[in-house]
What does this fold into?
Amino acid sequence: MIEVRNISKSFNGLTVLDNISATFESGKTNLIIGQSGSGKTVLMKSIIGIHKVDSGTIMYGDENFTDMSESEVTRLRQKVGMLFQGSALFDSMTVEENVRFPLEMFSDAPKSYWQERVKFCLNRVGLSHAARLYPSEISGGMQKRAAIARAIVLEPTYLFCDEPNSGLDPKTSLTIDQLIQEITRENNITTLINTHDMNSVMGIGDKIIFIHQGHKSWEGSKDTIFDSDNEDLNNLVFASALFKDVKKLHARH
Amino acid sequence: MNLFAHIGRYAMLMTQVFRTPQRWRILGRQYIKEMEKQGLESILITIIISVFIGSAITMQMVLNTENPLLPKYCTGLVTRETILLEFSSTILCLILAGKVGSNIASEIGTMRITEQIDALQIMGINAPNYLILPKILGFVTITPVLVIFSMFFGLLGGYIISWTGVMPPSQYIMGIQYAFVPYYITYSIIKSLFFAFIIASVASYYGYYAYGGALEVGKASTNAVVNSSIIILLFNVLLTDILLI
It folds into this structure.
């Protein structure tokens, strides 16, 4: 579980996050949604530690992340997997080497275990056939799947996904969403997903946090999102062409 | 950013680079890979440039030392001193700053803008140490080898051109052996170690702090070459003063 308490962050006097508190539960897909520029990426990057928060506390389980020393952060990060918007696979390595890389860096287990684990992860994301290919030789969807395999190879406790469906077609997006949700449930991972894809919201939104102009404006799940009377959230949800009919239905009720 | 801010940020980056590696085995693997990529792939261009410059220097010396009072072997002697003292260390490193420096800056810059460096950091890896240290060590190791290659092929270029009738080859051979000071080779190698460090570290610095898109990577690459060239020339004066005068 990850808990953020009253975190604030500003850049050059401009407040980007203002007193945000939220709990992200393990075994669930926790979505952070919001319009572009709302502060959702800054929130995720602050939780990971790429940005240092101005005030507030970030708890990873019982550990206070904001008070950690550099070596403690390094240790904690070995429990963290991250899926980047652009996959961020190392282009000088094959898919297999990319997935093996975290094991080489951190695992003291024998090489035979590495091979098994890499094979398992590639199988899990359905990429066994592409193990010897370089990232430039595979499609965007396959790159995302390879990045998921790399993110889970060390059996992380926390998984962060920044716009996992960006640049993908709807069918591939669905596959990626399902994969993330299955992996989250199978391994009881605390997963945070930063997205503005309404298909993802309605498909895998076990828990949803809506960020608007740096504030937490709404909190709920895919089951309660249509019942919200939050105007900013409704504007975001119903801006999606897919939900225009839902809007009409919603208006009728 | 002003000059002092750049120096401060460069120093901070270097403190990250020169830390104990998380995995020595991986450093060793990367080190060998970098020596091959930055060094061995530069051998051909080093040979080509050295042969042609050696030939050109010899021809220029023949023209400029044409005097009945000066013995003909003087041409070989001056060619040797020019190649040993300046060309094979300073000029060669300026050329390598263009080839290797731009390569390093664009490679690291691309890794930065495609979030590969962020990925390393999220994994808990010291990205400067993992990426930059093997490049610096590899290039510092291989550059003296390139300098020695350059000396040999520069002098060979002069010898080849002497066979075209510019001057008697025997006089050229006599000239390049006359009043030889072995320390000049040591001096040249010491200089090249400094220059190699400058090229690899400055290029890595500009690449590491490239933010934005492809345009920024191009800019980082240009800045790396221009600034490392200026620093090389500055250090050339300083090192000549310290080591030779």
User: Anything to note?
Assistant: Chain A touches chain B at residues 48, 50, 73-78, 80, 82, 84-86, 88-91, 102, 104-106, 160 (CB under 8 Å). Chain A has nine helices and ten strands. The first helix of chain A runs from residue 40 to 48.
